[in-house]
Amino acid sequence: MMRNWGNATAHGREARHALVAAWMLTTAIGAGTAMAPAAWAQAAQAVEFNIPAGPLSQALVLFGRQSGLQVTYLAASATGRTSPGLAGRASRDEALARILAGSGLVFSFPNATTVAIGPAGSPGVPVSTEGATVLDTIDVTAGGTTTASDLPFASPGSVAHVSEAQIQRTPPTSVGDIFRNTPGVNAVGNRVGASMDLNIRGLQGQSRVNVMVDGTRQTNGSYRGYRGSRNEVYVDPDLLAGVDINKGPYSGAGGTGAMGGVVNMRTINARDIVAEGQTYGARLRGRLGTNTQSPPEAGTTTIDNGPPGFNGDAWNGNLAAGLVEDNYEFVAAFARNKQGNYFAGKNGAATFNTSRNASRFPSEKKFSFFGPGDEVLNTSQNTTTLLTKGKVNWGDGQSLELGYIRYNNKYGENNETLLGFATPDYPPNQFGLSETTTNTFTSTYKYDPAGNDYVDVTANLWATDVDTFSQTLRSNTYGYDADGKTHVRTYGGDISNRSTVETGFGLLTLNNGLEFVDERARETQSYVFSPSAPDVPIYINSNPNGDRLLWSAFNQTRLDVTDWLRLEGGLRYDSYEAEGKSEALSSLPSGSGSRVNPSATVTVMPLDGLQLFASYTEGWRPPSLREWSVIGIGSVVQNPDLQPEVSKNVEFGFNVKRDGVFTVGDALRFKAVYFDNNYDDYIVRVRAPYSTYTWTNIDQAEFRGYELSARYDTGKFFVEAGFTKYDDIEFCGSNGVCGAAAAAGDYGIMNVPPKYSGTVTVGARLFDERLEIGTRVYSFGERLGGYALAPGAVNPPTVWNKSTIVDLFGSYKVSKDVTLDFSAENIGDRYYMDAMSTGPIPAPGRTLRAGLTAKF
Question: CB neighbours of 94 closer than 8 A, spacing ≥ 6?
């Protein structure tokens, strides 16, 4: 049994942090002493080059990979130019002179790791662009071009990326499915409705993880009865262009108030639709799917068995059109997604022995009222999304981009609490549909004047409006006249400036900024009258009724001491104010607080394409609107003395990013991270006197484990893998005793992840890469610590089996602009419960999809 579920006294953590800090310092000093002479001589050393004659842009990419230098230039300066190439040993200066021969371009070295290329007479970058189309600077780094997918393997820290290609390979049935490939990230309660609630390394809920759409927050949530509450984010995956993930506290824009991580889901823009070199373009995409049928009428308790084939009840399509000119660009998109209730898989165990719950009277119990091959009621979706974005460029490096997204979904929503108590006499039934509408407004101003290393300004201003009618919220208020409606508006913005300065100690990069977030949540307040005092109302609101203002000032500093040593540090000043906005909360004083949160990272690069790093980061999470402004069913007592949570995270790891490892043109990427995340004053829900509940701080929570990410691609075939394993999770009460009982009242400690989880994806590209086929194997283990009812708790965790799920995918390019694709999710038709299910809701069985994408 893991020690987190035993009784132990928390101790030694401060000493451990001090040892880590000492290790980081001595590593930097020792490495500097040993490696400095080699670094100063590296520029003059001869390197073996193999660069064929051809387009100059291709030659520069190969030079960056083989020399280990970062190469910067404007795309226009290389367009139409060729290079004679180079084969043999040469110094970097000699190689550049040969590669650029006859091009009219020259080079210079802004620092020891970067070469800047531009027209003769302008040796620095940026170069003059009069009469040319200004494209983004191309960045070629050691080990190959750093794309968004490569960035995690070139970043010293816990960074991850989900690409559009990964999303589209196996289109998600539930939106949280898009994170299956991402180590350390789980979509919690992924089948209860249309929303997404993410867990990163054990942290979830109460705004601990900031999940954004184009840099905006929705700050939405719902009360789930005995099964707790969930943060809720709504997005259409068909219009996503990629997802960027920072795990743990983040010192840049987006990090205020969130210590579990920052996730930004970027929707498409004009350049995702218009081909490079073209002025306009359009994309049409459509798919048909199996394994669903239209939901029955509300109140139906009949559960069908046996999934249908292609019946027209599962389809999605979208149309996007874009325009790109020298000084402006625009994109508009419309998407529809409709699917009925899905059917569970047919193969696999349908029962478990209750001894896994530490029952004194073991018996066989069904995982769910929905058995193998059954229709899972309340899992339908009907989504309509409209997206528009426009951008204008003018003057010397200025631009303004405006965007709007409207999302509407009428969907089935399962009540996890009622499902947990379902019996043949009280079976689950089809509810009426819930509905959510979001309106998202974004604006981004940038000012990056040419030739100025001190000014690179980015300013964002945004707003989101989320209206929800929830059948689950309505049913969980037990007849107290609640209308099931909530309304949340969130406003936010940030401004930052990035500067680079050459110093006697190396290249210094500074990013300084300010950020604010204003959350305003409202729910219709209901009340009943006290039997003992009929004239005294008891106010009820299951979701928040309050305001919370977050703001922060942040600094990120990076010093590239040599081409093998990098030092990074950050300071973030966070502040908050919160107050209830209902009659029941009028007597509660406002909450406020502030804190300075530091971070430090040391990165050593002994070889090209290899990074060794260690970091220490502190974060801060003030009480959420739910913790501050909910009076639930007359039984939640607010705690005006609630203190913010403080995180102290330690990480060690290394990155490998190399090309040409085994064959010419192959690419190897690997990332390994050990994390030890500690949270002081962790907030949990506990029982208060007279059978009520309140929120309080316990001494500490700790989550410790490993993550691995890897990718190998030869062009002809590729392998991708991700793996997470937790060593220990523990909660420690104010009495110093650690164990499950310290957080027993906190909804059964629903945020405990599986012991391990991981994916392996293998694919091949055939027939001149026109055909791509592959398979993904997804596996996860049992819940860490088991499923026993924690001492003092009334709600046991949902039981799931360890499972392995196999998906297939493929695509075929009929022509340059037309692609056919197919996928088969859960090809073995396994009956299983998702890891971190919040209720007994089985996942979809075998689901086939076929689609077409056409570009114009």
Answer: none
